[in-house]
Every structure is written in structure tokens, then in C-alpha cells.
Amino acid sequence: MFSYFFVTDPLTPPGRDAPLAEEVKKLDIPGTLVIGPYVICLLLGLQWGGIRYGWSDVRIIVLLVVFAILALGFGILQYRLGERAMVPPNIAKKRSTMAAMWFAACCSGTLAITEYYTSIYWQGVRGDTPTVAGLLSLGLIVGLSLGCIVSGFGINIVGYYTPFMITTSILAPIASGLLTTIDLDESKTKVVAILAMLGFGVGLGLGVPFQAMAAILSPQEVSLGIAMVGFAGGLASALFISASATLFQNRLEDEISKVVPGIDSTALSHAGLSDIRGLVGQQNLKDVLTGYNRATVETLYMPLALSLLTVVGSATMEWVSVKKKRD
């Protein structure tokens, strides 16, 4: 609140504020009206496909077709609106902007899926309470925070942010790969250490795309560039969580059917994490938990793939000195 009322924007000369009507004309209202429905259609299609309805169901087909049409329409709108667009083409087409958005999307997706399904591992497979599961997940948060701090200081010292993106592309896949090896009797200390390593690896590069926008774009374009990177990360988190839910549900039902053929895998997959042990008999519990663990691990291959794909962003990002930008 203090900043809003008392901190002035150096790019806007005093007394030169445009009238409200002129400011409204600058808004990309058509783009705003299109982007909401197309994101919703995609999320619903990914969430329902293969779980509530088959992929060949007309509802899923319609959702995906509508998404494709609206996405195409959104792209055409942005191209025609030019600098007035929500995603200005002159900014979006820059190599570093695309690299930053790609990198942010992969990092955000990696974190979102890992955090979600390690919680399922703690509660569903290991039988921990939500409170304990939250405490055990702190390793990821602590590592992430430490990585962001090290990255911030490191960039100020080195002057270049790209090396930290490259480091993320090395450390994150290693940690994500180690997570796919966990089993029923895995040491909790080992899992927490792997999560901390993953958090640290991702944290080193998570804030870099935003710093890259400040270093590469002109002062007038920086806010738009940062908003685009943030949007890419947020959208990726939502999309990949929906996609991973479909994968997990399908793998869980398949794995449970393999280990305990007679059990109602659908009812089990829809049960709460704390209810699993009450739905299966003691004689089936070990097999069911084994199936649950396999489904969780197979879902964790998604963040492994996303962490590997960060190399596309780190390899294509321009090397620009933040020290020269300040000077």
C-alpha cells in the first residue's frame, strides 16, 4: 500500500497520466475474453480425459477442439493487436523471452508435481498424517529458498544469470531421477535429502527468467516480460497437475488390479489417503501399498522429464551481463 501511494514510476513523467478512457483502450479486452475459456477447456479436457470420460468421448473431443480453436484465435488476436496485445509479439518472439517462459514453465511444473505427489507418498504409502507429511515436505521448501538466495547473491557477483539456469538443468534431473527410486521402506531422511537437493537445484534457476527480462528488455517492456514469464509458470503448474492426475489415476487402477485382482481399484483410487488402510484387509495391505507406491513413482517421471526439458531454456538463453545493464 505504501509503495502504491508514495513510490513514483520514473518512466511516467509527473502530470502526464492519461485519461481513464485512454487507459481502458490500451487493455486487451478481446484477448482477456478468449484466454480464460481456452485455458478452462484445456484444464477440463486434461482433468476428465481418461478418468471421468474416455479420451474418445465426445465431451473430451469437444473440449480439446474448442481449446484448439480458441488458442488459434488468441494467437491471431495477439498478432493483430501488436503492441497493445496481452502478449505483444515484439516481446514474445525474442529468443530470450521464449527461453525464459519455457524454463519457468518446466521449473514450475517440476515443483508442483513433485510437491503434490510426495505428499501422496507420505500419506498414502507411508501412512503419515497430513501434519507429518507437511513437515517432511519442508526439505523441498528449505532447499528452494536456499537456492533462490544463493542464486541472487551469485548473479550479483558473477554478473551473468545463465550459468545458474544451466546448473538447474544439471541438478534438478539428478534429484528428480533419484525420487523415482523410492519404495515402501525407503529411509525418510534419504527422501527428505533428495527433496532438498531438488528444491536447491530448481531454486538456483527459478528466479532467473524474471531477472533475464529485466536485463534484456527495455524499461517499458520489463513489466510485460515479467508478467508473461509468471503467467507461463502459473499456467504450466495447473496444466501439469491436471495431466499428472490423469496419469496417476490410470496407473493406480492398473497397478492395484495387478497386485490384488479382486479389489475395486476405482473405489480405492477415489478414497481419501487416510482411508486406504480401512478399505483393504490386512492381508492385502502390503500389495495395495506396493501398487500405490508404483503409481506414485511412475507419476514422478513427469517432473523428471520436465526437469530435463529445462535444458532447452538454459541452452537458448542469451548471455547478458546484469552489471552492464545497471551501468
Automatic annotation (TrEMBL):
The chain crosses the membrane at residues 29-48, 60-79, 99-120, 132-154, 160-179, 191-212, 224-248. It is found in: Membrane. It comes from the Eukaryota. InterPro entries: MFS_trans_sf. The keyword Amino-acid biosynthesis does not apply. Keywords: Membrane, Transmembrane, Transmembrane helix. Gene3D superfamilies: MFS general substrate transporter like domains. GO terms for cellular component: plasma membrane. It is a multi-pass membrane protein. One of its GO terms (molecular function) is transmembrane transporter activity. This is Uncharacterized protein.
